[in-house]
Prior knowledge:
Layout (H helix, E strand, L loop, with lengths): L14 H47 L10 H25 L11 H4 L2 H4 L4 H58 L1
Helix pairs in contact: 1-2, 1-5, 2-5
Amino acid sequence: MIWKSNVTEWDKVSVESYRFIIEQAKERLNEVIEESHTITKKGMTLLLTYLTVLSSLFGYIFSEKFKIPYSIITVLIALILAVFALYVFTLLLALIIPKNLYYKGSPPREIFFKEVFEDLTSDQGLKNLLCNEAERIQDKIERISLLNKKRGGQYKSTLQLSLIFIAIAIFTIVKTICNL
Length: 180
């Protein structure tokens, strides 16, 4: 739902005030968009690290040095690790592929229509247009901030799970080497 300003006499606000508000709103929008990009970049770094460790683990498991007697417990642990790895991988993919995209500007068809200017002077029409745009930018800021908060929490959880998985993988390799 688009946020609505509680200013009741919007036509008494100067055009310069509206322009200042929109300028500040655009700066804030740029900040939340940059925060979203940062979360995606962190997710990509984590994904690449995860894939590197996973590749190393699989390379080691299928090498000639890896010799563990196969038992039901070994197979069960391997299956649990595989499911855990797959789960973390899907979390990472969800983190780097955001579902909602928001653009900085507004397309003319969404802001430029006759009701915006109907029965208004050109100055009032401009103020109405600027007021509507300020509300639209605020809505985008709120939506992206909400997504960033959710994705930030998701990144933290995924990082913790990835670190646990990496620690288990390293522990397994070290333990195997020590038992040889």
